[in-house]
Amino acid sequence: MKRKLSSIQRPFLLHTSGAYRTTPTAALQTILGIPPLHMQLQFEARFTSIYCLRIPLPPIITVTQLQDLEMKATGWSTHPSEHLKPNQISFEDGEAYLARKDIINIFTDGSKTEHGVGAAFCVLTNDIWAYQWSAKLNDNNTVF
What we know:
Elements: H1 2-17, H2 25-32, H3 37-52, E1 104-113, E2 116-125, E3 128-136
Antiparallel strand pairs: 1-2, 2-3
């Protein structure tokens, strides 16, 4: 089984590394930092049996108990943008903040005309245009 898995992995290692075909497979694995496929398969099998199937740990492992292993969360999780830290940038509609003087407002735009695609942004500080930038993009660019 070990030889078959190594023969499957070898062409990918050769292509990734660009090494000569006479380079030993073990050397390619070491250079690229990729474990042998049979060891990776063994790891995944053990991980699945312990983590997903909740099969008890071997008796030689006494430090970790099965109930101490963290379970992966399933289902939907909240998006990070819904729980911003105070120093993070928010991309929400900023109409409510236009009247506040202590906030820097950044407006962006991208558009396409018959002359090409362009992008721009401007920075407003205390209702004063602090900075603006615009550019015509390459002809092969789109607005998406």
